Every structure is written in C-alpha cells, then in structure tokens.
Amino acid sequence: MPKIGITWGDQAGVGPEVIEQALASQTWPANVDFVMIGEKIQACPGVPTLKTAQASLDALELGAKMLKDNSIDSIATAPVAKEWLHKVGFHYPGQTEFFADRLDCENYAMCLTGPSLTVALVTIHVPLTEVPRLLTSSEIVRIGSLLKNFCEKKNQRPAKIAVCGLNPHAGENGAFGREDIDIIIPAIETLNQPEQNFHGPFPPDTIFRPAVDGHYDAVLCMYHDQGLIPLKLLDFDTGINTTLGLPKPRTSPDHGTGFDIAGKGIASPTSMANAIQLAIDLA
User: pTM of the predicted model, to two decimals?
Assistant: First the structure.
C-alpha cells in the first residue's frame, strides 16, 4: 500500500480547502494510504501570520523526515508563502531547494507538467541579468538528462525533447548573442550520445506550439519565465510542479497561496488533485 504524504501549506491560504476538495472530488485508488502531514491549526483565511508560516515550515521538515525514513513513498506539498517562511528561518528560494537539501540531493531540477505542456528549467530563482553567466553546457546536460528520465518514466517510451534557445531567434547564428552557439548546441550534442532525444536550439517564440501539438514530450528552457509563462497560460489550473532527481517523488500544485481568494470557495482544486495523482503515479 503506497503512502502519499500531503502537507497543508500556509493554512491562511487556499491549501486546506483545495486539499479537502481534491480528496473528496474524485475516486482514488483503494490501495493508496493518504497521510496528512503537520498540525491543522486555526487560521484566518487571507491573513498569513508567523504562526501559519511556522506551521507550514514544521510540516515541510516533518515531510522531509518521513520521506527520508521511508514512512511515506512520495509527497504532495500545498503552496507556502516564501516571504513569511523567511521570517521564521526558512533560508531557501523555494520548496524545490529545501527538499533537495533535506534529502541530500545535489542533482535535482524544477519541472512543471500539465495536460498541454511539460517544461524543465536550467536556471530557476535568479535575476534575469544573471542567467547568461550561470548558463553552462554541463548544467544544460544535467537538467536535460533529468528531464529525459522523467518523461520516459511518466510516458513509458523514449522521450523527444525540444531545447529552447536563450536569445531571440535562438541567436540568429550569432547576430543576437553567441550563447546558443557556444553553450547550448554543444550541450545538445552531448545529450544526444548515443540516442537522438534532444532537438534544437529552437527560437523560444515558436517552439511551444509544436510541443503543445504533441511533436515533443517536453521543452527544456533556459530560465524561469521562459518556461513558466507558456505553462501557466495553458495549464494554470491543471499544472503540477515536481522536483526531478529526488530519491522519492515530490509534487506540488502550480499556483500560490491565493490569500486574496482564500476562504471564498472559488479556488480550483484541480491542480492539487493532479499533484496528488502524479505523486501516486510516480510512487
């Protein structure tokens, strides 16, 4: 019986309501055991406090511990408020980096997947001005390999992955920058040994349409917004965040705490339900 852990997130947000709706809204496999992680506290919808932040951090710490000691097989984490988490001693850019650290994982990546599109990000939570400096062939190879493994595990067939260029028109043969020639193309050549799973680099303004049409299983993107803008445009209510490379699966809905709509009964549980389903599938 697989055990799927679920954290409440910041309980002043939509986490508790979308979890409860998700668990009640569909028929889950009879052999799955759901484990709610963390204390359920009294919170005022839309009003985060140090107490709600601490409760969300405590749940993350407990969830990581349970993954590590095999008490659960995977975890789906509801949204947290990073600004408030930082006030109670959380020193990570996000949950992705937190779980990688707690599970002693150095080879990890952020991936977003939905019914329309799957993307992985070579650089994540960094200023846009830092992206060209941080972009390296070895990092593209590392993230691309994790994405290929995820796609093949999820789809049970060889992966076909498109690679975004960094610059407009993928650099236009060096006219708009040389990163695509000097960094991205060598990475693709390395990734394609011995199999030809990776294609590109493609102009970022055109590649997402063929990916959505099913010509590619995923798109490898060079920076945060390059991948998340199309993903959230198409799959905002249905997308899932998963951390690639962890020893055990971690998923999350692809939306925030929704403090502005918390408690109003209008938050969609679909992304949370999909995150739970993917946690089950990967487990």
Answer: 0.88
Q: Are strands 118-121 and 109-113 parallel, antiparallel or unpaired?
A: antiparallel
Phi, psi of 50 (to 5 degrees): -60, -30
Give the pairing of strands 240-244 and 109-113. Answer: antiparallel
Q: Which two tokens stand for residue 226?
A: 């390059």
For residue 273, give Cα distances in angstroms to 76, 87, 139.
9, 29, 32
Q: What is the dihedral of CA 92, 283, 247, 122, to 10 degrees?
A: -60
Q: What is the pLDDT of residues 189-218, one digit of tens each?
A: 999 999 999 999 999 999 999 999 999 999
Residue reference for tokens 């939570």: 125
Helix (H, G, I), strand (E, B) or coil at 229: helix
CA gyration radius, the chain? 19
**Cβ atoms of residues 254 and 241 within 8 Å:** yes
Cβ neighbors of 246 (< 8 A, separation 6 or more) are: 67, 99, 100, 103, 105, 108
**DSSP 8-state assignment for residue 115:** S
Task: Look at the block and give the residue holding tokens 């193309």.
Answer: 185
* Unique residue bearing structure tokens 């695509």: 180
Residue 111 β-bridge partners: 120, 242
CA 272 to chain centre: 13
Structure tokens at 20: 């409860």
Strand partners, 220: 120, 163
